């Protein structure tokens, strides 16, 4: 899979997660401890996130506590 396709797929994953859980970028940033700027840039495909940011966001999305 090309790098741009990977970014696009991860961007879609974040957007779908936020819709499902009714989260804004700010709420997701506060809960996941990833900056809102990183989240914006990943979603708009302006930034290739490093592996630690991807791991942090994926971990948060997989283990999101109720109400957060």
Automatic annotation (TrEMBL):
Name of the molecule in the record: XRE family transcriptional regulator
Q: What is the species listed in this Swiss-Prot or TrEMBL entry? A: Lacticaseibacillus rhamnosus
The beginning of the lineage is:
Bacteria, Bacillati, Bacillota, Bacilli, Lactobacillales
